[in-house]
């Protein structure tokens, strides 16, 4: 659906609310108690104790009335269900690949893809691997290389396609490791780990041209394929008058397959899939699928989930929706910038990232400035976010116990799809204004208890009271 021109500046939510979930209101004093009991770890706070949950945009969005209606049509037959047929038709209509394999979420598609394609010592280039993607590559004994352009690593650079892959780096990788050791190349759209930044069509074409000379297949990590297409329509010459679907078709025509976390642009609460044009690979993938996910016509999902996805994948192509979605993120980003917050620029598709190291120069990286900000956002406004800094990525030397901080100390405000109204966002902005005014008085944190890996989920913290 094309976007209808409007003479008004206000971007309204292109939907009305049919079913609501009440927010349980809490006071600041109550939240101080709650966060203390949770040892200052927001992953340990119960959802009903959160006013605005910006922890992730994954599987947290609202479904439409058409999706709920589709849920009731779910055909739960073990083999050859109508739900699968509707799902497969919808995916093929948009992505155009020959084989469609459903999985319970994105990482299951990744595991199956890399199990089939990679072996020990293989090299997989990507603009930036998402963390589950990297983990699944490395689990095969292969090496995951991030080849994003240099502009993509500079938080202040306003390059319109900061998710692009550096084509020179790709060529160098090919000559260094030899194309026989590179079973596939991936491009993540939009580049989640790089701040939700888009990849241009031009870049995909260039990457494809390099790979074609060496017969290396190109796969997309397509979690936010529609948001990426919207950025192309907005920013890349020659695409203004194309529909989102036409843009997606063109992009996918340069690929040999994709993995998909349908919890993002699938507009559903669970689901994923793997696509390929390679008959032999598809056969091996389906064999593996049966081993852990299920029969190839449901792959770990209920029939009703497949139906919700069949509808959601079409709805995400609606330009009014994408215009509202990208405007909402931009609106939040622009207001935070106006207050004075250093954010990763320009605002990406699904989230805003605040640079807590720059915001709190008085808090040392190993006193976790990102944690300090996210805890404060919870106490002051009941807002839940996630630290993406030294709590998540700090490395501890097993022998010396010495800790090395992460390169960046970010806090991510991820926006669930179709879930919040403009006044929710205005509330977040107001809370952030209050926090900004007291930024010099806030203290860091220390970790009092932590597991040996993935510590951010379960670690305990304590505020550092005096310096
Ligand atoms: C979320 C995500 C994944 C993993 O998908 P899950 O559905 O969470 O397993 C992979 N790649 C990207 C870019 C993602 O955003």
User: How far apart are the termini?
Assistant: 58 Å
**In terms of structural class, how would the helical and strand content be classed?**
alpha/beta
Strand count, sense and barrel status of the largest sheet are: 5 strands, mixed
Backbone CA Rg: 22 Å
CATH architecture descriptor text of the largest domain: 3-Layer(aba) Sandwich
Gross morphology is globular
Total separate domains = 2
Number of strands: 16
Mean pLDDT: 95
Ligands in the model, by name, code or SMILES, are:
pyridoxal-5'-phosphate
CATH class of the largest domain: Alpha Beta
The CATH homologous superfamily of the largest domain is termed Type I PLP-dependent aspartate aminotransferase-like (Major domain)
Q: So how many helices? A: 16
Strand order of the largest sheet: 2-8-7-6-5
CATH topology-level fold name of the largest domain? Aspartate Aminotransferase, domain 2
Keywords:
467 residues; alpha/beta; Aspartate Aminotransferase, domain 1; Aspartate Aminotransferase, domain 2; 2 domains; five-stranded mixed β-sheet; 16 strands; globular; binds pyridoxal-5'-phosphate
């Amino acid at each position: 659906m094309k976007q209808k021109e409007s003479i008004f500046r206000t971007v309204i939510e292109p939907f009305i609310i049919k079913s609501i979930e009440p927010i349980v209101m809490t006071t600041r004093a109550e939240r101080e108690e709650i966060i203390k009991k949770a040892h200052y770890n927001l992953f340990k706070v119960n959802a009903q104790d959160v006013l605005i949950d910006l922890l992730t945009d994954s599987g947290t969005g609202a479904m439409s009335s058409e999706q709920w209606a589709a849920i009731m049509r779910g055909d739960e037959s073990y083999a050859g269900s109508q739900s699968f047929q509707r799902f497969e038709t919808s995916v093929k209509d948009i992505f155009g690949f020959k084989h469609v394999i459903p999985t319970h979420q994105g990482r299951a598609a990744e595991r199956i893809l890399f199990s089939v394609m990679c072996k020990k010592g293989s090299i997989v280039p990507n603009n930036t691997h998402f963390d589950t993607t990297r983990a699944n590559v490395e689990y095969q004994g292969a090496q995951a290389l991030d080849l994003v352009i240099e502009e993509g690593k500079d938080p202040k650079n306003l390059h319109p396609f900061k998710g692009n892959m550096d084509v020179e780096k790709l060529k160098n990788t090919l000559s260094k490791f030899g194309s026989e050791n590179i079973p596939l190349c991936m491009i993540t759209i939009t580049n989640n780990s790089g701040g939700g930044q888009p990849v241009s069509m031009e870049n995909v074409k260039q990457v494809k041209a390099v790979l074609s000379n060496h017969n290396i297949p190109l796969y997309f990590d397509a979690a936010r394929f529609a948001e990426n297409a919207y950025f192309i329509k907005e920013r890349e010459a020659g695409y203004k008058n194309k529909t989102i679907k036409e843009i997606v078709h063109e992009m996918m025509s340069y690929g040999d397959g994709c993995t998909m976390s349908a919890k993002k642009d699938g507009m559903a609460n669970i689901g994923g899939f793997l696509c390929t044009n390679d008959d032999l690979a598809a056969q091996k993938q389906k064999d593996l699928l049966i081993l852990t996910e299920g029969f190839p016509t449901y792959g770990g999902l209920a029939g009703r989930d497949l139906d919700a996805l069949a509808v959601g994948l079409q709805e995400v192509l609606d330009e009014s929706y994408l215009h509202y979605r990208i405007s909402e993120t931009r609106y939040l980003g622009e207001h935070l910038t106006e207050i004075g917050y250093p954010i990763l620029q320009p605002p990406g598709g699904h989230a805003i990232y605040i640079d807590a190291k720059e915001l709190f120069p008085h808090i040392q990286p190993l006193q976790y400035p990102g944690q300090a900000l996210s805890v404060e956002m919870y106490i002051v406004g009941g807002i839940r976010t996630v630290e993406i800094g030294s709590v998540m990525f700090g490395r501890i030397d097993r022998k010396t116990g010495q800790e090395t901080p992460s390169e960046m100390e970010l806090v991510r405000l991820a926006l669930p799809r179709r879930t919040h109204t403009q006044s929710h966002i205005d509330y977040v902005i107001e809370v952030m204004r209050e926090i900004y005014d007291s930024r010099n008085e806030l203290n860091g944190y220390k970790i009092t208890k932590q597991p040996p890996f993935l510590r951010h989920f379960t670690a305990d913290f304590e505020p550092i009271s005096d310096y």
